[in-house]
Amino acid sequence: MRGATMTSSAVFGFHEAPTQPASERKKKLHGGQQALVLVVDDDPDARAMYVACLEHFGYRTASESNGEDGVRAAASLKPAAILMDAAMPGIG
Known about the structure:
Elements: E1 36-40, H1 44-56, E2 60-64, H2 67-77, E3 81-84
Parallel strand pairs: 1-2, 1-3
């Protein structure tokens, strides 16, 4: 049996390092609420990387490790954005 290989890439654009502390870099939605991004990925390392990057740039995050839980979380949390591994087992 051969193992699977996954490649992922993400682009987080910025021109210079943030100058304010992470606690002050909160991304806000209309109404002043901090933006929530739901990360859904079965690879724990990829999930941790995306969460760390998003939180560094001021986003609040929630994460799930499979599509079913991701759909439930999306319905209950109503995130501003969802970052999901579309090649995950059980998706598509």
